[in-house]
Amino acid sequence: MRTDRKWKVLAICALLLVNLSACKMGDAELVVSSDFIGDEVFKIREEVCTLPQARVILTNYQNMYATMYGIDLWELDSLEQDLETYVKDLTISRLAQIMAMDDLAKEKEISLTNEEKSKIKRAAKDYFDSLNEAERDYMQVRQSDIEKLYTRYGLANKLYTFLTQGVDDEVSDEEARVMDAQQIFVLDKKKAKEVEQQLKEGNDFLAVANLYNEAADTDVSFGKNDVAKEVANKAFALENDQVSGKIKTDNGFYFIKCINHYDQDKTDANKSVILENRRKEAFDDVYQEFLTGLSSEFNEKVWQSVRVEVNDEVKTDKFFQVYEKYCNW
């Protein structure tokens, strides 16, 4: 029940748990094909993603992670292979999804305005001008590639807004409420009885947790949808400093001590999470159906030859920041 993880920056080990074993656009896979020329990485209908365009996203993801964690992850031999696979798969997955969304946008007759196109041109120039010679050579990129990428992202954002505009944006405090707590989790019934007895005798909750807790964390934060229903029913009825009785779930037994029954900051953040989940559901209802009839091809040979390289002169990681600066519609 490591539900406090949502409220922290993800640890690097969490990245390695993501298994993108194939290039996807949601639940649909890109079909491996040999029908390519030059530096084409994949096609969705008539639209092509080139290697320089893919390298831009790949390089930015690589450097974003390095910047985020303050260490050169790519120098750690134990992580290098997994990180390279993760970032490469993430790059193709995201680009394929953006291009598929653009195709759906065209079907819905959604397009960019002249003002939006002008902003994209300025954004592309801004980002391209920020690249040093080594970065341009490494990614083999031109300003027109950046403009193409920003255009695709801009159109995908307009589609997402269009498909989610009818979503109810009211989220109540109670629906989003997040509490801070301490937990004791044990797997078997015998240990649960021992914990129960210790707490009945008035022993300090944290001291008992140090002896018995089999979960990774004692201090946790969670919303109602983050835990088993049995836990939520008992935990969210507690006031500050109250301790629940034994809570049986399919996974084992929990004991919860309420530290703060209403964390305002985390509740406000959870409202955004709940609202975004609603929007995603509305979007997926249309998007997933669209994918079933979408043709796509993937140049596996070219992409497998790409390697994530460490280069002290290649540090660009502001692609998405520049996009948000100019194209946040």
Descriptive notes:
With 329 residues, the chain is of the alpha+beta class. The chain is built from 13 helices and eight strands. It has a four-stranded mixed beta sheet with strand order 1-8-2-3. A four-stranded antiparallel beta sheet has the order 5-4-7-6, sandwiched between helices. A hairpin with a 4-residue loop joins strand 6 and strand 7. Helix 3 packs across helix 6 (143-164) and helix 4 crosses helix 6 (143-164). The relative contact order is 0.19. The model is unreliable at 2-22 (pLDDT under 50).
First and last CA, distance: 37 Å
Lateral arrangement of strands in the main beta sheet? 1-8-2-3
Got a strand count? 8
Q: Uncertain regions: pLDDT < 50 for 5+ in a row? A: 2-22
Q: Kindly estimate the percentage of residues that lie in beta strands according to DSSP.
A: 5-15%
Largest sheet: 4 strands, mixed
> Structural class of the secondary structure composition?
alpha+beta
Mean pLDDT figure = 88
The secondary-structure element order is: HEEEHHHHHHEHHEHEEHEHH
Shape annotation: elongated
Task: Report the radius of gyration as a whole number of Å.
Answer: 24 Å
Fold blueprint:
Layout: H1 12-16, E1 31-32, E2 40-44, E3 47-50, H2 51-69, H3 77-107, H4 114-130, H5 133-139, H6 143-164, H7 173-176, E4 178-186, H8 189-200, H9 205-212, E5 219-223, H10 229-235, E6 247-248, E7 253-260, H11 264-291, E8 296-298, H12 300-304, H13 319-327
Parallel strand pairs: 1-8
Antiparallel strand pairs: 2-3, 2-8, 4-5, 4-7, 6-7
Helix pairs in contact: 2-3, 3-6, 4-6, 4-13
